Amino acid sequence: MNDFEFEIVPVDDITEIKQYGHPKYKLVFILDDVIGLFGVEYDKITNLERYKESIINALGERSKILFTCRKALYNEAANLKSFVLDKKYLADLEDNNNQLNAEDRKHILNNHCKPHDISLKPDELLNVSSTVGCMMYPLLCKLFCSKSEYQSLGKDFFENPYVCIRNQMDYLQVHKKIQYASLIICMLYKNEITVTMMARKDPRFMEIREKVFENCRVSGRNSEIKSSLDHMINTFTILTDKGYSLIHDSVYEVLAFHYGNQHQEDMLEYMSSSFVAKKFSTSDTSEYPGDLHIKIHGEHYSAYAKRLVRDLKDLELYDVFMNKKLKIKCICSAFIEELKKNVINWVISYGHSHILQFLFDQVTKHGESIWRVLDWEVEEGSESCYINNLTEQLQV
Fold first, then answer.
1. Which phi-psi region, left, alpha or beta, contains residue 138 (left: φ > 0; alpha: ψ -120 to 50)?
2. What is the pTM of this model?
3. Average pLDDT, the chain
């Protein structure tokens, strides 16, 4: 793009395009994870449509917008109507015509090595793995050049990137605890720590900090967190306009897997509804290094169900009702138990006194339990029985 005199402008929000766009300048705006990270976030699509006209007017004919999203999310949202999802503007980076070839990989790796005076043998440049995901390749080149131990691994680093990153997290957790804890805090705080929140001791930030410090068995001041994040810039963190963020989605996922399988409660408390819906599983983790889900153990079924009810209250309806874990009997049963505890509270909280009166009249009139009146008593049996009753109640 620079060869064609375009200025590249990464943005974090669609409104920034409206703010910085100008018809006279040749700009390319890049907005990553445009419709969500782990699941489709429908409010983002709504927001994009809301600003569509004003953005196009601000860009004029000289500037362009490059939206990125994961292919799985695009497929999930493919039937939705939005200019962002228009197939005529789509470039699938996994398509054979768009994938990185050997020459592309050689060029990218060379560009990262040169500033660090790292020399590689010609055969190493040419044969760097073609199997590694093209989405991760530029990040891997950056990480490869950041540490001598990565360089000593040579092609193995590129062939097994998740293993290398997970091993690095193992090392940080034991030998660099404040750095590890700082990364976890960043992950739990929606992948961004700002200088302001550290300086002002933001209550939610401090709450997360204390939990993570306790779990990681480390202590420290906010200034030490900042120093740790600074130390890891271009390895695991990057600078943003307001503070720090993790360098790449893959680092975010490895961190979530690494910490989350040890401390599920924190993940259920602080991670997004889409993460909870997509990244938790009741099955064992496979031996494939890229399998980065968090296994829900039996003692956490209730906590998982409580989180689903919380998301339901927050109107994250898609993430709750399209959650495939609700098809699993143990999770569905725990979810129904949590709904039992909340149904009367919801009726009262939302001021539906006439509904509450009706429920008590039914109990008095028929001499039955409140659960039978609400049709919550479900016969033991098939999973579909649970799901059908749940669906009927939700429709009511």
1. alpha
2. 0.70
3. 82
